[in-house]
Amino acid sequence: MKVSTVAIILAVAPFLSLAATETPNTISRPKDYYQGKPPKYQFPNRGNRKKVDIRASCNETDDISAEFLEGIRKANNGGTLVLKKGKMYVIGKKLDLTFLNDIQVQLDGQILFTNDIEYWQNNYFPHPFQNSISFWQWGGKDIVIEGRGEINGNGQAWYDGFAGKQILDPKNTYLRPILFTAVGATGLSVKGITMRNSPCWTNFLADSTDVIYDDVFIEAQSINQNRPKNTDGWDTYNVDRLTVTNSGANIGDDCFSPKPNTTNVFVQNLWCNGTNGVSMGSIGQYPGVMDIIENVYVQNVTMLNSKNGARLKAWAGSNVGYGRINNVTYEDFYVDNVDNPLILDQCYFNLNETECAKHPSEVDFTSITFLNFSGKSSAKRGRVTVEAVCSENAVCKDIYMEDINLHSPSGDPAVAICDGIKGGIGIPCLPANHTDAKAALKDKPKPPTATGT
Q1: Do residues 407 and 381 make contact, with C-beta atoms less than 8 angstroms apart?
Q2: Do 352 and 321 contact (CB within 8 A), yes or no?
């Protein structure tokens, strides 16, 4: 399904509010909660540009990488590379496109990467964060990619080859390319296109500023039991001033997930299906390294059939790093069939409670605001719809929630669990060891009652 303008409908049937509990509603909405938007970036005038055409591929193995690179060089410094509707452009060689200046790519056709796994696992652009690799890398200044075409990662062969493996397994050697990587870009706009079937993350933005996505749809689907893994919609590293609007993702991992040292982010009108949520992080992974995520505003999200809704995630355990997630606002968030509609997780990655208690996270969560959450969970966590459990080794304060109207198929009342937060949070909340909290976690939906005739 192509999403041209994502319609986010937040007018839903009323749901019961969280039950009154021992923790009183002791604070009011912060007067200065973050609603920032990066200043509008001024691209050069795009009128009267020279147009550059290249030949299209004859079939899915007809590699035109050399022609594509030549077309990019000709269109650079004020021109437009035209990729025509109904035409396929096959890329079978890695491409370094970090020299760009004032270029537009009119993408109305299809860019298709070959599925030559042996070649790509020996020819790629590496990035040290989580051992990432890329087919190509874009960079430079004033780069515009727009149209109604698609970039296709030809991911099925990669989904099959990665079956049973995990990306963060230190023994994993099966590296998979990211569909679109920008490194050192200033002024990058991606608009109107579809990004389909990435082998791994879909977008990875590193060491870049003033990046804008609008009206972009991301999808990763398998034709067999080997599901796409780690096909995040947007990931970032050392990025300032990022805007994502009117976009959607139908994938198997984080819908949107800024990672270390990402600041001044604006997300509005986002539709996510089958994802791991709109996540801040993870951060704090690498020993002795300080990471930050700061100044983020996420507004008007529809989250369907997902593991998480709004999530903050930080690493715990021995030999990890530290840092902060600060000044983040989620507002107008609708969920349906979501395991954890609202969750603060300082026990990432796959860490058991004993190990997490032994080596708590040192990532601070401060000035985090959640406003107007509605919809229903999956009941995987029983009647619990909010879990905000913070580390004893970190600062967790100025966490505020308002108009949290979440329902569980297990029945009412819905329950919020909170631990380790300094001060009130604005809604009633139970500690994790409370009898009612434990009971709420065990509640499962009752099977439908059979009716006679």
Answers
A1: no
A2: no
Q: Round to whole Å and give the CA distance between 226 and 162.
A: 8
**Tens digit of each residue's pLDDT (9 = 90 or more) over 118-167:** 999 999 999 999 999 999 999 999 999 999 999 999 999 999 999 999 99
Between CA 437 and CA 380 the distance in angstroms is 14
Residue with token string 């505020």: 400
Q: Are 199 and 222 in contact (CB under 8 A)?
A: no
Q: For residue 298, give the nearest of 230, 247, 252 by alpha carbon.
A: 247
Per DSSP (E only), the strands in 179-261 are 180-191, 194-196, 203-214, 217-219, 234-250, 257-258
**Residue ranges of the domains in the chain?**
53-164+174-341
DSSP secondary structure string, 362-392? EEEEEEEEEEEEEEEE-STTTTEEEEEE--T
DSSP type of residue 130: G
- Closest to 281 in 3D by CA, of 339, 326, 336, 216: 326
Query: Tens digits of per-residue pLDDT, 74-112?
Result: 999 999 999 999 999 999 999 999 999 999 999 999 999
pTM over 0.90: yes
What is the Cβ-side half-sphere exposure of residue 336, based on CA atoms within 13 angstroms?
A: 11
Element (H, E) at 66: helix 65-75
Is residue 298 within 8 A of residue 329, CB to CB? The reply is yes
Distance of CA 225 to the CA centre of its chain: 23
Helix (H, G, I), strand (E, B) or coil at 399: strand
The alpha carbon of residue 151 and the mean position of all alpha carbons in its chain are separated, in whole angstroms, by 18
Give the DSSP letter of residue 129.
Answer: G
Interacting residues of 11 by C-beta distance below 8 A, sequence separation 6+? none
Q: What is the dotted CATH code of the domain comprising 53-164+174-341?
A: 2.160.20.10
Amino acid at 241: R
Q: Which residues pair with 312 in a beta bridge?
A: 280, 344
